[in-house]
Amino acid sequence: YTYVSANCFAGYFLAGLAQYGRFIPPTDKVIIYGEGNRKVIWVYEDDAATYALKTVDDPKTVNKTVYIRPPKNILSQREVVGIWEKLCGRVLEKTHISEEDWLSPMEDGSTSVQRKVEMAIFYHIFFKGELANFDLNQSNQCEAASLYPDVEYTSVERYLSRFA
User: Fold this and answer.
1) Residue 93 lies in a domain
2) Is the per-residue pLDDT at 129 higher than 90?
3) Neighbours of 101 (CB within 10 A)
4) Is residue 61 within 8 Å of residue 142, measured between CB atoms?
5) CATH label of the domain that carries residue 8
6) How many CB atoms lie within 10 A of CB 17?
7) Where residue 34 falls among pLDDT bands split at 50, 70, 90?
8) Is residue 111 assigned to a domain?
9) What is the residue range of 116's domain?
10) pLDDT at res. 107
11) Which of 52, 116, 122, 158 is the most exposed, having the fewest neighbouring CB atoms within 10 Å of its CB?
């Protein structure tokens, strides 16, 4: 077996600057989760596919989990918003949402199970920082960019520039 952990796909998370349900970058205002400082790993889907295909016949990946963690793409939400502001030439109005305010709708009986699952995923990524808060130091873990330095992955800036 080989498991590939791709982290936050650009089309779902990065394109809308992590705005829930938004798939193009906002040009006026943005919600920041907490202080917006938790590191997130942003990965363009084509790059994830490239890395995954490289693992298929690679004996170095047998019985391992390959984490796709492009070094230039380990950025906080606040850093990503800053890149977008530079690209679009505007300063966005930032509204911070606290952990408590984010979680409160989950206690509401009218919130659907699907919505609760989506909110839980956002919570663990943006409030807890659980994508980038651990080191790869076990023998069954490896990092794709280190294994395949020949892959020229798409940076956050290059990805967002398509919307500018």
Assistant:
1) yes
2) yes
3) 9
4) yes
5) 3.90.25.10
6) 22
7) very high
8) yes
9) 2-159
10) 87
11) 158
